[in-house]
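G., the chain you wanted modeled:
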Amino acid sequence: MSFAGTGVVAIWHDLLPEARDEFYEWHNREHMPERAGIPGFLRGRRYIALNAGPTYFNLYEADSVQVLGGQDYLSRLNTPTPWTQQSVKSYRNVARSICDVTYTSGVGQGAYLLTIRFDVEQEQHKPVSDALRQRVLAPLADRQGITGVHLCVADEAVSKVETAEKKARAEGTQIPAWIVMIEGCAADYVEAAGDAFMVELHRLLEGQSSTPEATLYQLEYTRCKTPSAAG
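Predicted structure as C-alpha cells:
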C-alpha cells in the first residue's frame, strides 16, 4: 500500500545471538507500542532477512519528517527506558535513516519486502529522482504480486542528531541516503520486481561509484496506532 505519511524511520541491524529472546519480548511488548504511541507516528513494522544483509529491518511511518525531528520523538530518544538501554547494546551493524517519502504507491501491505540502499551523486539528485518517480517506479507497482513501491531519501541533518538512545548502542550508525522498498505477496514476485529495478538503476547510475545493497525481508510484526489490545 502507499505509506501512511510522508516521513519514515528506516532501521537495519544485526543482533547478538544470545540477545534474541529478550529482543523479541522488548520489541513486541514495549518498544514498538511506545513508538506507535508518539503523536504523528502511524504504523511500525519489523521484518527479518531471508538472504544476505542485516538480520532485521524496522520501518516506522509518520505524518512527516517534521514529526520525526520534533520534540515528542526526541524526548523518547533522549529518555530511553531501562529495557531499551539494555536491549540496544546488543545491536550490531546499525544503519538508520530518517527520510522524506518522495514516491509511494500500492494496493496493500505485503508479507515480503525488498530494501535497496544506494547513493546518488549530488549533481544527479534531481534527474535521478525525476526518472525514478516518473518512469521507473510506477510500472513496478503494477507488476504481478506487487503490493507497494516506495522511494525514500534521507534527511541527513535530522538523521545525524545525537540522542541518548543512539549513544547507548555499542557501535556507530550508518545513514543510507536513498532507499527503494518493494513489497509483495510472494518472495519470487518481489525478487523479480527487484531485478527489474536494478537494471534501471544501473542505467541511471552509470559512471557513479555507488554499489546498491539489496536485502529481501519477511514481515514479522506490525503495530498500528490503535488501542493496545488491538495492535
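The first strand starts at residue 7 and ends at 15.

Shout if anything looks off.
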